[in-house]
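seq:
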Amino acid sequence: MANASSAERWYLIHTQAAREYLAAEHLKRQGYRPFVPSTWRSIRHARSIRTVRAAFFPGYLFVPLNLDADRWRPIDGTIGVLRIVKANGRPLPAPVGLVEGLVALTGKDQALDLAGALKPGSEVRFLRGPFADQIAVVEGMKGPDRVRVLLQMMQQSVPVEAARADLAVA
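struct:
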């Protein structure tokens, strides 16, 4: 349905709570190309930590459409979708460059790479693992995928090595 063209824009789709991936799957079956920006999150429960991929914008996803060529009304009736975001009865496009920038940040694991250009002295936040949501300072790079950070624990800086994908610029 939605083919790449110069008149194509990204549109915001409001989904049912925690149903972004279900809605995306049903949109794919109809020929659309949904994009769900996601990140990794650690969920703590009792004494266990689980890492799951979660929507970066809970309750929303994006779909590229050419309103002159594509049928957009079936989107509102798709399983998992509440509605396409509209103004005056017509879908409202996302600002140019917003979704394209998010797509460019998507890594091999289909999650957003929020670490950006890490450099010594940068403040970062752990996205997942035992230090989830903790702030640290980059000390240096240990190869393309590993970062050495200084984490404040018990009133001192403790060096910790972490995967680049586990960090986001704070």
